[in-house]
Write a structure and sequence with these properties.
With 461 residues, the protein is an alpha+beta fold. It has 3 domains: 135 residues, Nucleic acid-binding proteins (OB fold (Dihydrolipoamide Acetyltransferase, E2P), Beta Barrel); 112 residues, OB fold (Dihydrolipoamide Acetyltransferase, E2P); 169 residues, Beta Barrel (OB fold (Dihydrolipoamide Acetyltransferase, E2P)), CATH 2.40.50. It is 20% helix and 35% strand.
Length: 461
């Protein structure tokens, strides 16, 4: 085989054409299906085997590849590489794709063509050239769809069964992956199969099932680190699970999963800030007084989390509903103008797309202990729902007296507050505080932890 380092020998995917002679293509595998078999119409009693995959060689171009052959060749070829590998394909057949059939069962690609790899005429090998790999591997983190065109999990839940059967894009984080929960089965015709369910979450939904049936998809998701991995899932099929009475997403032959996608920094930072860090309560153990956390925020430019046993000294629940529950743009999280039903952010990445909104609690609370007060702490979304014991829709239907009763359940009561402090040059205090979890505190737990803090609890005037 020719030297892999000779990049000029490779034909870019964007230049491929049926008239291209003996093409040589290098790309990174971004998607792959399992091997399937069908009865051979020409050779009665024998099966033909096939599988497909998708390769990418530039930010904007990728193409589907298929291969047909006997059991030995197809399974041997399929087992030789996985998603994330860089490969070199020599002398594939460049064929015009059937746009209706191919786009229905395969990932939608910008190319008018598809590649076919055969045992008689083609060769596929793993690329070992470092220079080529360094050029191709970053493409794994570029979504194959517009990064602004996605549904949040809250959008899916809000639309409910109206999305049943639709194929959509999803941006979410991995909550849990349990390889020991893979279920193996045998179909009525003797075919073996498997199923693994991954739990996703974002700032609007705490747990959402993603179902994987293909061995290739299961192999990919098993490598993901829960609570540290974000996924852009292109063309996931949405369905309604009547047994569990919930919506689900399923990986199918069109789906491309992009791990930790590389896109607009504003959207990325917001997602990390409001999703990944919101999931970190289980690992938070440091206890602070209000004065201690203020001091740490002044001395530390990094985000940090902690616990404070403080009184809720401001909780405005019995005023205007519009000040308690707000709608925000799903793309940039800016508040939606209720009158015009438009995003208030002129630089919103979804400006050219139909407006989709996420509605939920949007509160600012004050927490106070004997050392001082931490003002304007954000208490939003599902954290607020868990704290108050009702959804935002249920709260909107409560009477004023019922809302006031919820308010006084917490106001001036000692609470255990998990918080996240983020440096902010736009805030007068130089920081932003987000509540990660809040519940009425156990007196014994308060006494034990406050005693441990001891003399370090110096009052702040």
């Amino acid at each position: 085989m020719a030297n892999n380092g000779q990049v000029q020998d490779f034909v870019p995917i964007s230049d491929l054409h049926p008239n291209t002679t003996h093409p040589r293509v290098a790309g990174v595998i971004i998607g792959k299906t399992d091997v399937k078999s069908f009865p051979d119409r020409k050779k009665i009693g024998l099966d033909r085997f096939t599988f497909g995959f998708t390769i990418k060689d530039s930010p904007d171009y990728f193409i589907n590849v298929s291969s047909w052959g006997n059991d030995r060749y197809i399974n041997g070829l399929s087992n030789s590489f996985s998603v994330g590998d860089c490969v070199i394909i020599e002398n594939p057949l460049v064929a015009t794709k059937d746009s209706e059939k191919d786009d229905r069962f395969c990932p939608s690609t910008p190319s008018f063509y598809r590649l076919m790899v055969s045992e008689a005429h083609s060769q596929l090998s793993i690329c070992a050239d470092i220079e080529i790999m360094n050029r191709l591997l970053p493409l794994l983190h570029l979504p194959v769809k517009d990064y602004r065109d996605f549904y949040s999990l809250g959008d899916i839940m809000a639309n409910g069964q109206s999305l049943d059967g639709n194929v959509i894009n999803i941006l979410a984080a991995v909550r849990s992956v349990r390889p020991e929960n893979i279920k193996y089965f045998t179909t009525a015709d003797g075919r073996k199969g498997q199923r693994l369910e991954v739990k996703l979450f974002d700032d609007s939904v705490t747990s959402f099932p993603l179902v994987c049936w293909d061995r290739e998809a299961i192999q990919l998701v098993q490598t993901l680190i829960p609570r540290e991995t974000v996924l852009f899932i292109s063309d996931a099929r949405i369905g309604y699970d009547g047994f569990r009475n919930c919506m689900t997403a399923t990986v199918n032959s069109k789906t491309i999963i992009t791990v930790n996608p590389d896109f607009d920094p504003v959207v990325w930072l917001y997602f990390i800030d409001h999703t990944i860090l919101l999931s970190s309560v289980e690992s938070v153990s440091d206890v602070y007084t209000v004065s201690q956390l203020k001091l740490k925020a002044q001395e530390n430019s990094e985000v940090f989390c902690g616990i404070t046993y403080s009184f809720i000294s401001r909780l405005d629940l019995d005023g205007s509903i519009s000040k308690v529950i707000k709608s925000r743009c799903s793309k940039c999280r800016y508040q939606v103008n209720e009158e015009s039903q438009s995003c208030s952010n002129t630089a919103c990445p979804g400006v050219d797309h139909p407006l989709t909104v996420t509605t939920g609690f949007d509160l600012l609370v004050d927490v106070t202990d004997h050392t001082g007060t931490l003002q304007s702490c954000s208490l939003n979304g599902t954290v607020a729902e868990k704290t108050l014991g009702c959804s935002h829709n249920e709260f909107a239907n409560l009477t004023e007296d019922e809302r006031t009763a919820i308010k006084w359940k917490f106001l001036l009561e000692r609470c255990k507050v998990y918080f996240k402090i983020t440096p902010s040059s736009k805030s007068r205090s130089g920081m932003r505080c987000s509540v990660l979890e809040c519940s009425l505190a156990d007196p014994g737990e308060v006494k034990q932890n406050m005693s441990a803090l001891g003399s370090s609890c110096s009052p702040v005037l």
